[in-house]
């Protein structure tokens, strides 16, 4: 008899106030922004926040993934630094692994080469951290063949490494990849559809970008007092505001990536929700220390479809009579959620709840929970309740 989850999605909505900071910059070193509702808002890209989430998530689950263009070089370095291989032989192994992978790679220009087989970049791969050691183990098995082999001198050279075993390692995955997904078109059946969708975060209100001028004092000049001026001058952009953040977790996709292992899916889901809520991008942290916590977290367990509440802030919230945007943002989110539920119906909502710093109630957000752990635990228990042959398990 098969088991089926009683829910399909967990949607996470977060309101978080961030002080003077620059969490995410564009290619001109400017604060990222977005025009929404005809108003300029501060924005943090989903890629930026997702990386912070992933790094926190890896710590929680004790697994790590490696995204790199330098997989051949990484294996070569492991062979020399940890396994005592001669540098030339380790480089040859890296070159042959790159050639066997079937993934496009580049060799260092001949006139710049310090040693043969210097792989300077593959197409991007995304593999479990353990794949590096597994590729090194394969090289150990093939050491005699590598010692007798010729160097890889151009990208069309054939490798003596077994392609099927190399690609099998590159195709491997762990909980990180099963959750966040992977795009690796060069290796057959290596792609993994991500179970997580993360929206760009944006402020609930209009923001202004502030230009911060700074200078660095020359200590010797200051001590000798023999001239004026600083050692360096510059400027950086910053902003501040209350952000709306949203993500949804597809439980069916996650369970499918794990071959139906619901216990593993449940563990990953709970860790992801904790990481999504508590993570913060680290840009400019030494000069801004913007380490705040969310004002409010709202979770819905749904059986129908994901539902973002970003449209609550299409009309920017106004500063409260006594100052601040957090309180008006919370009230606006609750009122909008209540209106959406009235309009769309609640048959798709399996559970709705919230937790936060606000002492007042927010009926549009469902049941209030005592704290974050209680909220997440309750949502995950509900989401992973199963039915067997149509009866409650």
Automatic annotation (TrEMBL):
InterPro entries named among the record's database cross-references: CRISPR-assoc_prot_CT1975
NCBIfam families: casC_Cse4
Name the UniProt record assigns to this protein: Type I-E CRISPR-associated protein Cas7/Cse4/CasC
Source species of the chain: Streptomyces prasinosporus
């Amino acid at each position: 008899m098969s088991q089926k989850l009683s829910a399909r999605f967990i949607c996470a909505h977060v309101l978080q106030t961030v002080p003077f900071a620059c969490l995410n910059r564009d290619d001109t070193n400017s604060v990222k922004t977005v025009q929404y509702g005809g108003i300029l808002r501060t924005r943090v890209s989903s890629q930026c926040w997702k990386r912070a989430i992933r790094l926190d998530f890896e710590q929680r689950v004790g697994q790590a993934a490696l995204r790199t263009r330098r997989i051949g070089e990484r294996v070569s370095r492991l062979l020399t630094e940890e396994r005592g291989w001669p540098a030339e032989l380790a480089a040859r192994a890296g070159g042959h692994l790159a050639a066997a992978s079937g993934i496009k790679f580049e060799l260092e220009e001949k006139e710049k080469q310090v040693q043969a087989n210097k792989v300077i970049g593959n197409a991007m791969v995304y593999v479990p951290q353990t794949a590096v050691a597994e590729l090194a183990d394969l090289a150990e098995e093939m050491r005699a063949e590598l010692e007798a082999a010729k160097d890889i001198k151009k990208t069309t050279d054939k490798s003596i490494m077994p392609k099927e075993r190399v690609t099998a390692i590159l195709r491997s995955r762990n909980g990180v990849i099963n959750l966040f997904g992977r795009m690796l078109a060069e290796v057959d059946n290596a792609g993994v559809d991500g179970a997580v969708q993360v929206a760009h975060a944006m402020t609930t209100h209009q923001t202004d970008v502030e230009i911060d001028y700074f200078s660095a004092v020359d200590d010797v000049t200051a001590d000798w007092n023999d001239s004026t001026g600083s050692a360096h001058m510059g400027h950086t952009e910053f902003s501040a505001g209350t952000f709306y953040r949203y993500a949804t977790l597809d439980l069916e996709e996650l369970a499918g990536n794990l071959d139906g292992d619901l216990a593993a899916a449940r563990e990953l889901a709970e860790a992801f929700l904790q990481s999504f809520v508590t993570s913060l991008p680290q840009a400019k942290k030494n000069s801004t220390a913007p380490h705040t916590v969310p004002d409010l977290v709202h979770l819905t367990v749904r059986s129908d479809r994901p539902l973002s509440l970003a449209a609550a802030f299409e009309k920017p919230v106004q500063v409260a009579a006594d100052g601040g945007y957090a309180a008006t943002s919370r009230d606006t989110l609750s009122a909008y959620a209540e209106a959406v539920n009235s309009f769309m119906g609640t048959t798709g909502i399996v559970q709705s709840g919230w937790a936060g710093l606000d002492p007042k109630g927010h009926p549009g957000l469902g049941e209030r929970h005592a704290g974050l752990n209680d909220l997440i635990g309750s949502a995950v228990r509900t989401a992973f309740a199963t039915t067997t042959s149509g009866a409650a398990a």
